[in-house]
Amino acid sequence: MADETANVQxxxxxxxxxGVLKNAKRTGWWFTGNNNPESIAxxxxxxxxxxxxxxxxxxxxxxxxxxxxxxxxxxxTRIGDIPHIGRRYIDAASNETVTADxxxxxxxxxxxxxxxxxxxYENGDTPEAIVAKDADKLECLVQAVEYRAQGYxxxxxxxxxxxxxxxxxxxxxxxxxALTMSPLEWRKTFLGQ
Length: 193
What we know:
Largest sheet: none
Cofactor: Mn(2+); Co(2+)
Shape: globular
Radius of gyration: 18 Å
CATH architecture: Orthogonal Bundle
EC number: 3.1.3.89
Keywords: Hydrolase, Metal-binding
Order of helices and strands: HHHHHHHHHH
Subunit structure: Homodimer.
Distance between the termini: 63 Å
């Protein structure tokens, strides 16, 4: 009974830790002059949606991709959101190591499941992991387009880097479409304009 209680408490602790992502900001956007960028949780939510959509377009498992997307940045509760330029100067633990620590006290099924999902994403060699990584980059591109429309003019590097890293035809097509339209274009469908 003591082990079961500890596993449940360890799992609940993991859930509380994931709440930190709601307040932790994506720090790379600070370089663009945006002092109040999206949170890691906001980014991860849309990465999950983008991943599911891309998976449907690419003919791979959307649930598996969305799950990888949901967990792709959970390690940032412990190490923060290190901008790409900062990674040159910091030797951080691998995401797999951080994840193992995060779920070390969780229910055994949760521990194994989360580690499996993060491991597959980090290895990046399954069709679902490739789509999940594209979802992360495509969401960054879409966010940059939105920030550009809001007046942040220094986002082109984020657009270019994201666009150049996309691997799937569906992600490339969606990126090209996003770059040619207003972030509010979707409203015209229902407003008849």
